[in-house]
Amino acid sequence: MTNLPPDPPSSPRSPLGFDEFIAILVALGAIGAILLWSIGRRDRGFDWVGIPGLLTPSPSPTVTPTLAPTPPAATATPILPLPPAAPTTPSPEALVPAPTQPQPFAGIVPVPAPVPQATPTPTPEQLQPIAFVDVPENYWARPFIDALSARGIVSGFAGDYFRPDEPVTRAEFAAILQAAFDQPPGSGEQAIAFTDVPADFWGVPAIGSAIRSGFMRGYPGNIFRPQQQIPRAQVLVALASGLNLPTPQNPNQTLGVFGDANQIPNWAVEQVAAATDAGLVVNYPETNVLEPNRNATRAEVTASIYQALVRAGRLEPIQSQYVVQQQQ
Q1: Which of 28, 155, 297, 314 is the most exposed place for a label (fewest CB within 10 A)?
Q2: d(CA 313, CA 279)
Q3: Where are the alpha helices (DSSP H) in the chain?
Q4: Cβ neighbours of residue 326 under 8 Å, at least 6 residues apart?
């Protein structure tokens, strides 16, 4: 039998030495101390200050610690302490607003509200009358026509014609009154149901305004006769009625300035006398001839309405030799 060499013995396991056991315990104790210390300071955030071997704690009034040597600047950068974490939940005092004056939203500059400016009344020099081709410079009613056309009270026809010598219908006269005295249409036109004024007639608003303001009236039988040409006496009666002019104490004496005063209808005597006394009568070419029953022309109506506006304090007088002056 061949003798074989014996198997090599296994490496003997060295038992844990007492010094190594003590080192492990010390290491575990240090780790536990660090964990306990970190948990105790979590409200202020994790801080490396005080950990042995990293940074030396700040000096206190009673203990003067030994500062660790500062490493060279070329090889290491010192670790600075982190600032305490800001609280995420505001304190109760922060939730109560301070008693201060209200401030505008950041970035918005308050702009004062604009103060409405009054529209100035245009002066006579700023008003531009319509240059009617059939109203010459020396036409007797040119100053009255220019003044009212510049204010939009009277207008002309196509081609800048005024047709000053044409007659005026009652509906047209009502429209001029509405424009002259700023009478709003209102809501009562439907209540004025003249049998000869259709609901779709162009002059319904103006007729309603003239009736309500007291300038005009209808005829018996609930008719208005809108297309009837208006006589001169009716123009003066309408203006005297709308302006509430007082009747002179002696109307016949006032009407004595007219050589044809006896042609004035009886129903119109007092109002025509009142219009004459107030300076509303404009006669061309002779001031002492009234012709009360003749149809009024567009020029004559314009002149008398201008004088009515003067009487109402709306316009300044125009120097004209054709305005009838009351005898002194």
Answers
A1: 28
A2: 13
A3: 18-40, 92-95, 142-150, 170-180, 204-212, 232-242, 251-254, 269-277, 298-311
A4: 254, 257, 276, 277, 279
The pTM for the full model equals 0.62
Question: Do 308 and 276 contact (CB within 8 A), yes or no?
Answer: no
Contacts for 150 with CB less than 8 Å, ≥ 6 apart? 127, 128, 129, 130
Measured in whole angstroms, the distance separating CA 275 from the mean position of its chain's CA atoms is 42
- Any idea which of 47-51, 246-250, 258-262, 276-280 has the lowest mean pLDDT? 47-51
Cα dist. 304→18, 19, 300, 307 in Å?
Answer: 136, 134, 6, 5
Say how far apart CA 266 and CA 108 lie, in whole Å.
76
Alpha helices for 78-125 (secondary structure H): 92-95
Chain segment 202-236, per-residue pLDDT in tens: 999 999 999 999 999 999 999 999 999 999 999 99
Structure-token match 């536990």, residue found: 32
